[in-house]
Amino acid sequence: MLREITLGQYYPVDSFIHRLDPRVKLAGTFLFLIALFIVNSWTAYAVLALVLFGFILLSKVPFSFMVRGLKSVLFLLLLSVSFNLFLTPGEELFRIFFLKMTKEGLQIASMMAIRLVMLVLSSSILTLTTTPNALTDGMEKGLGIFKLFHFPVHEIAMMMSIALRFIPILVEETDKIMKAQMARGADFESGSIFDRAKAMVPILVPLFVSAFRRAYDLAMAMEARCYQGGEGRTKMKPLRYTGADYLSYLVLFLILGLAIGSRFISLP
């Protein structure tokens, strides 16, 4: 289950999406999420799903590998769908004891499920096609205007990049600890919810110790290399826009414009 988490991983392959400037991919993810929450019709969702599928094909990341990341949010997906399905007032479809499913609840739950799935997939495209270093450079360069307000752009970008980089590392560490505990007779699947929560303590303690140790080692390595923040630092590979980047911006803003326009026309 833990190995199904794809967020924070990088999939090395040569593709059109991989070659794009990281600023384009960051802006593209942000604009796609805005469009995702603007649309409110099934036709518009179908168009966005086709656009997202096109992006996945251009990234050359196997679709099966990308879908694996949905398993990590399956519980959140089922929880949010269930709440909207049975707690939304409206026209009753059927009832299970005191739980009432409504027509409005079914529509809202379905749209929320689609939004969450496409949100995870679009975010996965960003991290799977962008190295942590490129992601840091893209965030720092893209948010450079905030330096005028003395906002620590470089430090924020570095922290976010390190956090994303540590996700697969900590997932792998958790998997190793769980297998070691299961080899010693630990049971994480039987018993009540309180028993399962109690069984997680032997995992959380060594995981926190390992995380703090890795953080300390990273801090010592950065200090040994005289890291003092982004002031005065140069880039080995400066970011420069190409024609493909400008074309991608045009396509992204066109998608956002169509999403906004769909609010003013009647679509099924």
Automatic annotation (TrEMBL):
The keyword Transmembrane applies. CDD domains: EcfT (cd16914). It is found in: Membrane. It is a multi-pass membrane protein. GO terms for cellular component: plasma membrane. Keywords: Membrane, Transmembrane, Transmembrane helix. Its main location: membrane. It comes from the Bacteria. InterPro entries: ABC/ECF_trnsptr_transmembrane. The chain crosses the membrane at residues 30-57, 69-87, 108-128, 148-171, 246-265. This is Energy-coupling factor transporter transmembrane protein EcfT. It comes from Oribacterium parvum ACB1.
